[in-house]
Design a protein that fits this description.
With 414 residues, the chain is α+β, with helices and mostly antiparallel strands. It has 9 helices and 6 strands; from the N terminus they run H-E-H-H-E-E-H-H-E-H-H-E-E-H-H. It has a single domain, classed as Up-down Bundle (Outer membrane efflux proteins (OEP)). The two termini are 29 Å apart.
Length: 414
């Protein structure tokens, strides 16, 4: 059984680390993954490449075919060779005897390509599902931002109502009322723009399974649940076993097979021919037999072997380079995740509670005429900005987590 058949079960565990909460008419991350694995055009292209390689393997496993040749000599000449008087007709069967199991080594090269294709498909699947997960997280964040925008609308409406009451009693100028109305309108404009962005993000998710319209209203999930992260050393160990690096081991086996195939060309193939010759002049027949062997095959083939060896040796250095690059990406994503979790906790535990209390005090002072409109507006905007920052840090945590899971093919959380 090929590894690609096991991949959907692995990915279901890997990318469902994002906590899900069922909601009416809501798309879960698991549902999005299942649809993508079943219908994504990019992932289904591999089966046609596999079919082509299987057909190529059958062809490469064939032994050399036979050839039937007919040769007519000494015709249309002069004297005794005039017309067909001296003609010699030869009917011969010929073929090639391959030495050093060349058909076996050709088939081994195709088998290695099939194995490499499996790992390429797994790596590509991880990339596609990681991109899907990032789109899912961004949409989940936009939904949360919409909730925050609705709160901003309510705060702006409350500010406008309080301003109108104070204006009615002559304690506030009409200019402040105009400013409050403008503030409310700007927040509503932002809400409308956000609604349009959400629709675009839904279409961006639906295209992963080939749909041009979204048949879901919202996506389900808890943006603020992160879980306990695994140690970096454990994640780095998983990285070294991920398809992104295992593919190099498969490629090395492919290059080894190509080297062995090139080395098999050192033993030249034997060409043979067996036939029957008829002599028109004497009305006699005779058997013919021939064999030919190319000379200096090993010398002529040395360059091909050197080229194949160079390709094989290059794979190891490419793997080392990729490991360094992936290690940097993993450490960067892991470090950012930890940093954003710390920032998120500070915002949730200290910054936002203080700003909420400050807004309540400022609102009470404004309604009693002890503070002005600008104080209340500033307190409101500071709180909303802190909540947006809280939302941004949560989104950044999950996006970093998606990158880590893409690299390691393992869940980040324990």
């Amino acid at each position: 059984m090929r590894m690609t058949l096991m991949l959907p079960a692995i990915l279901a565990a890997v990318f469902c680390a994002l906590p899900l909460r069922a909601e009416p008419q809501a798309l879960t991350l698991q549902q999005a993954i299942d649809k993508t694995l079943q219908h994504n055009p990019q992932l289904h292209q591999y089966k046609f490449t596999q079919q082509r390689l299987l057909a190529e393997r059958d062809v490469q496993s064939l032994k050399p075919g036979y050839q039937l040749g007919v040769e007519l000599e000494n015709v249309a000449g002069t004297g005794e060779a005039r017309g067909l008087a001296g003609a010699e007709l030869t009917v011969a069967l010929s073929s090639v005897i391959e030495l050093d199991n060349k058909a076996q080594w050709r088939a081994a090269v195709v088998d290695a390509r099939l194995n490499t294709l499996d790992w390429q498909q797994q790596a590509q699947t991880l990339d596609v599902l990681a991109e899907l997960t990032r789109n899912y997280i961004n949409l989940l964040a936009s939904q949360q931002e919409l909730t925050l925008t609705e709160e901003a609308v309510e705060l702006s409406e409350a500010l406008l109502q309080s301003a109108e009451k104070r204006a009615a009693s002559g304690a506030l100028s009409d200019a402040e009322i105009m400013r409050a109305k403008a503030q409310l309108a700007q927040v509503q404009i932002g809400r409308d723009a956000l609604l349009q962005r959400i629709e675009r993000q839904k279409i961006a998710i639906a295209r992963f399974w080939g749909d041009t319209s979204a048949n879901f209203n919202v996506v389900a999930g808890n943006l603020f649940a992160f879980g306990q992260s695994r140690p970096f050393a454990e994640l780095y160990q998983r990285l070294q076993q991920s398809p992104a690096l295992t593919i190099f081991a498969s490629e090395r086996r492919l290059k080894d097979a190509e080297v062995r195939l090139a080395q098999s060309q050192n033993r030249a193939d034997l060409s043979w021919q067996v036939g029957v010759r008829r002599y028109q002049a004497s009305d006699d027949t005779g058997l013919t037999f021939g064999i030919s062997v190319p000379l200096f095959a090993e010398r002529r083939n040395s360059a091909a072997i050197e080229a194949a060896l160079a390709e094989r040796n290059n794979v190891e250095y490419r793997q080392q380079d990729s490991l360094l690059i992936l290690h940097e990406r993993l450490f960067d994503a892991y470090s950012q995740r930890q940093q954003f979790i710390t920032s998120h906790q500070q915002l949730a535990q200290y910054v936002i509670p203080n700003l909420e209390q400050a807004l309540d005090l400022t609102r009470d002072a404004y309604q009693r005429g002890r503070s002005n409109y600008q104080d209340w507006l500033n307190a409101q905007q500071e709180l909303l900005q802190a909540k947006r920052h809280l939302l941004e840090t949560a989104t950044a945590v999950l996006l970093s987590q998606a990158t880590i899971e893409q690299l390691t093919a393992e869940p980040v959380t324990q």
